[in-house]
Amino acid sequence: MKYHQIDRDLFIKNRTKFMAQMKPKSLAVFNSNDIYPISADSTMPFAQHRDIFYLSGVDQEESILLLFPDAPYEHQREMVFLKETSEHIAIWEGEKLTKERAFEVTGIRTVYWLQEFEKVLFEMMTHADTIYINTNEHYRATVETETREARFVKWWKEKYPAHAVAKSNPILQRLRSVKETEELDLIQKACNITELGFRRLLPFVKPNVTEYEIEAELIHEFVRNRSRGFAYTPIIASGNNANVLHYIENNQQCKAGDLILLDVAAEYANYSSDMTRTIPVSGKFTKRQKEVYNAVLRVKNEATKMLTTGTLWKQYHIEVGKLMTSELLGLGLIDKADVQNENPEWPAYKKYFMHGTSHHMGLDTHDYGILTEPMQANMVFTVEPGIYIPAEGFGIRLEDNIIVQESGEPFNMMRNIPIEVDEIEELMNS
Fold it and tell me: Is 362 exposed, middle or buried (0-12, 13-18, 19+ CB in 10 A)?
């Protein structure tokens, strides 16, 4: 891995919190992700399942974590199972975790090779009444591929039909949404790398540059700072491309006078950042572009102030809608009649700002979090309002990453990334 090793104390704390929520005489199993095939002998780059990483720090394929707090013996309460390594594997595939190295990474002393899993699980199941399975219940999830986790669940149900079943996900939704200090530091590192990429980009952008050249500049800066690359598929959308919310082709030429919407950010150690900025191709905003830009910026700044403990996600979005309505009236994009006659299910402002303002962020860009529960300290949210005007040939979105504080103002992790019109113009023309 490119990142510096994370202190195993983080993973020890995470496991302790999870096991404290488990039922008596229960065990939990977590599987790594598969390496997904493309064709012939080609594969996708490996990306670890965030839950097993959160609980163990293991960042390689074919790994299993087993937690059993009420196991008969102490050494059976935390166990990790790994693909057996050898000199041959090291030559052909690179370094894999040894049992000694696994302890350094995870803090788990009981390490087995993977081929011993079924035997050990059988022994543990004779002492357990319940097993926690790890299904994906994220509100944005649409999973069509059968995962390693899903295959395990299918196998387990056939092998042990008499045991009760519980779900890991509700526990993890709450635990992962509230970050430890070490996690906040890792997200901040990802934000700092994103800043380096953005600052590199500003003087580089000129009329006739292509969106993919911009993408190349960013990936260069991210990787040279120990990031694996983009935290998510980058959106580099010039001109009217910005009005396609998930535009990812990044293959067009950027024309003089247009704006470029950049929804791009680095990951670090599997933790995400999530930034959006909008910049002028020619290095200077037009009067109209500046008016709309500053309207979006005002909504972002006011929305940020609302990210405080006790805030409800649904009510927060209603209040942001009121802010956006006021700005759109000022820009002449809607009028009072539009507001008076609006459908409460799809308010007038939604014509120009049709997506949500915030989502949880962390190990996943759209991270775990239960949206019906109040915001808590050390949750991290994006704030990303936008105004999209196809008739005028541009769209503007601005996005920062914010920590909810126990008291006082929310903390902006992207506070040092240029966002004011004057600063962006100055840096682009330096």
Answer: buried
